[in-house]
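=== Given protein ===
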Amino acid sequence: MSTSISKFFLRREDGAPSRWDQYRTLLNRKRGPRKAQVWHVRHVERFSQSSPERRLGTLSKDEIDDYLRRLSSDPSYKDWQIRQSVDALHILLVDLGGCRASMAVDWDYFYFVTNNSLKFNPDHRGRGSRG
């Protein structure tokens, strides 16, 4: 089931759990403090702003890779912020099952690529999972 990224955080009128509710439930189960969860949501919102009016299910691996590549090479982000953002997007796109193309993304590579620990390779096209 895909959902419009720009409408991702809207609640359903019929009372059924929205994607937002499902994401928050996953965060509560998987990730610790509420303060960190707030930042996970902010990372997802930033990602949604990068592809307005797109549906999660229609995003390609290349679009996800490009976003993660830009994020990983942005000197204004600290290493932990990159890892937190990758984690937030992994929960949204893989764990929540919003995007089939996300299964081909090399999440481990982007999770561990940081400005100080690994040399970022802008041409990397590998595959992996963070399961």
User: Anything to note?
Assistant: The chain has five helices and no strands. Residues 1-9, 115-120, 127-131 have pLDDT under 50 and may be disordered. The two ends are 20 Å apart (CA to CA). Residues 5-112 form one domain.
